[in-house]
């Protein structure tokens, strides 16, 4: 989930006021979840989207009633039914990282501002005022909390804090006058001023959060640059990694403040070898954004990663995290590719090291990271696939698939079948796959089903089915492969996937791939189909067969 979704969980309102508030606040928190650019949902990824009850349970230790603050200002406590929806947070620094506490407070304030806009649209002035008082309290608490743990802050930050506090006080006084006014015409005329003040508060708040996060990123960079202590450097890197998990916008801030440069400096010092895994993990997170990629290119990051991958003295954990960085920067989802020129210069060494890592992987996660990097590399051009053939990569990958301890999830099988699909364009690949019992594996992948029902896992299963069908279609141009597929009863399974939407989880991409594979096999072995299957799934145009199969999902009751 993106930081924007975190700040605005209920979605945008249609009102123009909401759009203005959304735009102002989003200046500080704009950005999509960088983890989406990874080619697979790695198990250790930071998941923010959780059940609302679970989030409440997690935040319960930090929750308290700010009623006392309201009473100190002689404000009444609302007794409306939706009072239970108040978002409140205490200053228990001992139970939470200071910066995380700040981000939680910022999320609460943003949510309250959104709710104020919604209540204002409905002219619920009493509620608007009580919520404004609460926002005022939260803003002051946030500023006080931050100033208690920050070592230094700029004059610009102090000025912005004063502007925000003054505007919040003005906002509270304004809404109080609205509550005391009974003249409907007067309230209508005051509403535009309230809207304007609310927008200004949101703007100042967004600017302050942006400045605070930049300041904290600078402090962490300074610690990493200047410290010779492994302990202090480790703490700074861990804090930096936590920040990267809060959204792409924070990754951009870190990259602009020299985060990539500082982290690669660590990776070039032997005295910090024990910190390489977490350092590389942080680099993988930052390199989801274009700014991070530019910094990686400037410091010859590809060369550093190549040195780490090819150095046998490093631990498997270090090699795995270096593979994760490679997987990130080679993701086919990325639109910026300036770094690829230097990558191609080192590709042979990188591919060789990754194949070796797949072969020697001691766990499913290590194999997943290494195979994901290889899968992404095969999208470059046929040169990468030819390298894999020369390195007997197909034999290694197929052997790994028979070890349920190593290839233990649909995510890993997704990477293997991606490599198979991309390598299947080479004529020499067919014999490699047949010798490694790869047709049997592809047949098994056509039955891929999620055991948990998890959305990400279901999507991975769909990709496995689709790519296995694509691989079969490409390989079946070889009569030997087509014959082996027919003997393994691939045709009945493909027909089942075409005719039964539930078997393919209603996936159109799986349907198209299965129709293509079925037509290729039907050419090589026409006797394997019944006449009705041939007339409906093979003989018509592909689009007509597709429409016929998708219409099977409709209910005619």
From TrEMBL:
GO cellular component: apical cortex
Domain Protein inscuteable homologue C-terminal, first and last residues per copy: 105-557
InterPro entries hit by this protein: ARM-like, ARM-type_fold, Armadillo, Insc_C, INSC_LBD, INSC_LBD_sf, Inscuteable
Xref: Pfam families: Insc_C (PF19427), INSC_LBD (PF16748)
Location of the Protein inscuteable homologue LGN-binding domain: 48-93
CDD domains: INSC_LBD
Domain of life: Eukaryota
Single GO term (MF): cytoskeletal anchor activity
BP term (GO), one: asymmetric cell division
Record-linked SMART domains: ARM
Protein known as: INSC spindle orientation adaptor protein
Organism: Cairina moschata (Muscovy duck)
């Amino acid at each position: 989930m993106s930081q924007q979704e975190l700040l605005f969980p209920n979605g945008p309102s249609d009102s123009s006021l909401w759009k203005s508030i959304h735009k102002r606040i989003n200046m500080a928190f704009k950005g999509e979840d960088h983890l989406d650019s990874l080619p697979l949902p790695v198990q250790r990824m930071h998941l923010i989207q959780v059940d609302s009850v679970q989030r409440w349970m997690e935040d319960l230790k930090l929750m308290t009633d700010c009623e006392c603050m309201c009473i100190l200002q002689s404000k009444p406590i609302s007794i409306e039914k939706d009072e239970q929806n108040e978002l409140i947070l205490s200053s228990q620094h001992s139970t939470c990282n200071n910066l995380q506490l700040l981000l939680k407070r910022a999320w609460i304030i943003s949510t309250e501002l959104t709710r104020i806009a919604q209540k204002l649209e409905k002219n619920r002035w009493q509620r608007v005022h009580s919520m404004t008082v609460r926002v005022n309290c939260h803003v002051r608490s946030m500023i006080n909390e931050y100033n208690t743990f920050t070592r230094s802050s700029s004059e610009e930050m102090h000025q912005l804090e004063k502007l925000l506090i003054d505007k919040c006080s003005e906002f509270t006084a304004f809404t109080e006058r609205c509550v005391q006014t009974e003249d409907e015409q007067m309230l209508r005329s005051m509403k535009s001023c309230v809207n304007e003040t609310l927008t200004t508060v949101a703007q100042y708040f967004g600017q302050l959060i942006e400045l605070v996060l930049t300041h904290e990123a600078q402090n962490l960079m300074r610690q990493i640059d200047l410290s010779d202590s492994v302990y202090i450097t480790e703490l700074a890197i861990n804090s930096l990694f936590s920040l990267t998990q809060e959204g792409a916008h924070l990754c951009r801030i870190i990259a602009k403040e020299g985060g990539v440069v500082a982290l690669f400096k660590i990776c070039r010092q032997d005295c910090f070898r024990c910190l390489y895994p977490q350092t590389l993990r942080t680099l993988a997170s930052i390199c989801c954004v274009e700014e991070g990629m530019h910094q990686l290119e400037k410091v010859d990051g590809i060369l550093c990663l190549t040195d780490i991958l090819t150095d046998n003295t490093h631990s498997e954990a270090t090699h795995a995290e270096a593979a994760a960085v490679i997987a990130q920067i080679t993701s086919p989802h990325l639109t910026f590719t300036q770094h690829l020129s230097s990558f191609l210069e080192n590709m042979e060494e990188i591919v060789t090291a990754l194949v070796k890592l797949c072969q020697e992987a001691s766990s499913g996660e290590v194999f997943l990271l290494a195979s994901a990097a290889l899968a992404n590399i095969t999208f470059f051009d046929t040169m990468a696939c030819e390298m894999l053939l020369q390195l007997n990569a197909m034999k290694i990958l197929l052997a790994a698939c028979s070890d349920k301890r190593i290839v233990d999830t649909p995510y890993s099988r997704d990477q293997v079948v991606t490599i198979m699909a991309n390598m299947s364009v080479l004529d020499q690949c067919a014999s490699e796959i047949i010798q490694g019992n790869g047709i049997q594996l592809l047949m098994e992948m056509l039955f891929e089903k999620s055991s948990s029902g998890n959305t990400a896992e279901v999507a991975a299963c769909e990709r496995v089915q689709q790519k296995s069908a694509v691989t079969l279609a490409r390989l079946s141009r070889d009569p030997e492969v087509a014959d082996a597929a027919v003997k393994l009863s691939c045709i009945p399974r493909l027909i089942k996937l075409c005719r039964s939407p539930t078997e393919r989880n209603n996936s159109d991409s799986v349907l198209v791939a299965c129709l293509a594979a079925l037509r290729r096999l039907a050419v090589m072995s026409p006797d394997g189909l019944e006449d009705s299957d041939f007339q409906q799934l093979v003989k018509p145009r592909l689009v007509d067969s597709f429409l016929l199969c998708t219409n099977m999902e409709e209910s005619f009751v």
